[in-house]
Specification:
- By secondary structure, the chain is an alpha+beta fold.
- It has twelve helices and 13 strands.
- The strands form four sheets. It has a four-stranded antiparallel β-sheet with strand order 1-7-2-6, with helices on one face. A four-stranded antiparallel β-sheet has the order 8-11-12-13, covered by helices on one side.
- Helix 10 packs antiparallel against helix 12.
- The N terminus and C terminus are likely disordered.
């Protein structure tokens, strides 16, 4: 195992080492999460601003240290703003969906940053990707009022733009998989953290308070930055020490709560890594991706890392958490997503308060809906035009809508006035 394999967890972070009675493995967390989505999939800057307003309204759910201006973490996930990046990128970009973008958290030492960039470029070339350009991401720590502790461990931010190598044709999913392998290898081999590296979504986050995020990243204030969805998170860090990489959202999720079975889940994932097999456009030797779960990361980060490489976003949760409605819940998701299955078991005692998953074009809220909420959801769902391809795998059609509506009606008939009905809260983007 290389000496740099776990370097990303050491910096940029102000986490203390285990000492005396203190052990960072015994920390716990609770946070604030929200999302905004345009049900018709219309991207706009107004929606982005609504997401940022929601984030600022979650200030009470986040935390800071003895310095009120060094936050535990805040961030936002949006669709990739193609027109905006075309205007600001220092290179000509291919068509939307044919390139990936991600922000690298690089060392503050100039020589080390250059070495990391060159190593990442070599990894990308080995994975069949070409570097289009690097962009110095504008940040304004002084204008945002970033505190001394957060500023002392703040990385250098540079956005990487990648596309398929010349003469190589990649489907959108194949491009995402190549970007995933490139990012995992970069993390393991160079210690460079990427909040995201995708052709579909982008994440802006850091060791910030909710009010600091927008002024810190001026991109978010640009009128050309548009999205049809926004997932935001305000972090209350208690199971890991605050750091720039451990702010939410991650590549797919934002999470509020704790996973009590996190150690067991990590151990099971580690034990099963040898059994993992990828599609043809992934390397035969997947060991460069291991460990899937980064040592020292939070429970939420580990869940995201397990979710990320798998082909579907449908969760099969234990009956204990969803009050005996697992089968119906799972079947509803099968119709809504029309995707492959992912099984991630949760202990029935796990107090998962809220789990929000971005599927690039859709959201799932992993908490129950009341009958009243379900009826409102049904009214919207019944009016959707399924000739428009808005699901993660762009396969939903009118037949799927009819099946899903029948399931919703069956659930309402079963418990019309009782406790919340467990159905994924999905809204197209």
């Amino acid at each position: 195992m290389s000496a740099t394999r776990h370097a990303q967890t050491a910096a940029p972070s102000a986490a203390p080492a285990a000492q005396g009675l203190y052990d960072p493995a015994n920390e716990h967390d609770a946070c604030g999460v929200a999302f905004i989505v345009d049900i018709a999939g219309r991207p706009s800057h107004d929606l982005l601003q609504q997401g940022l307003t929601a984030l600022r309204n979650l200030e009470h759910r986040g935390a800071s240290g003895s310095e009120p201006d060094s936050g535990d973490g805040a961030g936002i996930l949006t669709q990739l703003p193609d027109a905006f990046y075309r205007a600001v990128a220092p290179a000509v970009l291919p068509e939307a969906g044919a390139y990936v973008v991600g922000t690298a958290f690089l060392p503050t030492n100039a020589r080390a940053a250059v070495d990391a960039q060159l190593a990442i470029e070599r990894i990308a070339a080995l994975e069949g990707l070409a570097v289009l350009c690097w962009r110095d991401l504008p940040v304004d720590p002084a204008g945002a009022g970033v505190g001394r502790t957060a500023a002392s461990v703040m990385p250098v931010f540079r956005q990487l733009f990648l596309a398929a190598a010349p003469g190589t044709e990649l489907t959108p999913d194949a491009l995402e998989r190549r970007a995933y392998v490139t990012r995992k290898r970069a993390e393991h081999e160079t210690g460079t953290y990427f909040p995201s590296l995708s052709s579909r979504t982008v994440v802006y986050k850091g060791m910030l308070t909710t009010g600091q995020l927008e002024p810190f990243f001026p991109d978010l204030s640009d009128e050309r930055y548009v999205s049809a969805l926004a997932l935001v998170h305000s972090r209350f860090s208690t199971n890991t020490f605050p750091s720039w990489p451990l702010a939410h959202p991650y590549r797919y999720i934002a999470h509020n709560g704790e996973i009590n079975t996190v150690r067991g889940n990590r151990n099971w994932m580690r034990a099963r890594e040898a059994l993992l097999r990828g599609p043809q456009d992934l390397p035969d030797d997947l060991s460069t991706l291991f460990p899937i779960c980064t040592p020292g990361a939070s429970d939420s980060a580990s869940f995201d890392e397990v979710l990320e490489p798998l082909p579907g976003l449908r969760l099969h949760l234990t009956a204990g958490h969803f009050d005996g409605h697992t089968v119906l819940h799972d079947e509803a998701r099968r119709i809504l997503f029309c995707g492959d299955a992912l099984k991630f078991e949760l202990d029935p005692a796990d107090p998962r308060r809220a789990l929000t998953i971005s599927a690039h074009k859709a959201f799932v809220r992993g908490i129950p809906l009341t009958p009243a909420e379900l009826r409102r959801y049904r009214a919207v769902f019944a009016g959707l035009d399924f000739t428009q391809t808005w699901t993660p795998f762009e396969q939903a059609r009118n037949s799927g809508r009819a099946e899903a509506l029948a399931l919703i009606d069956a659930m309402l008939a079963t418990r019309p006035h009782a406790a919340p009905v467990p159905l994924a809260d999905l809204a197209p983007g």
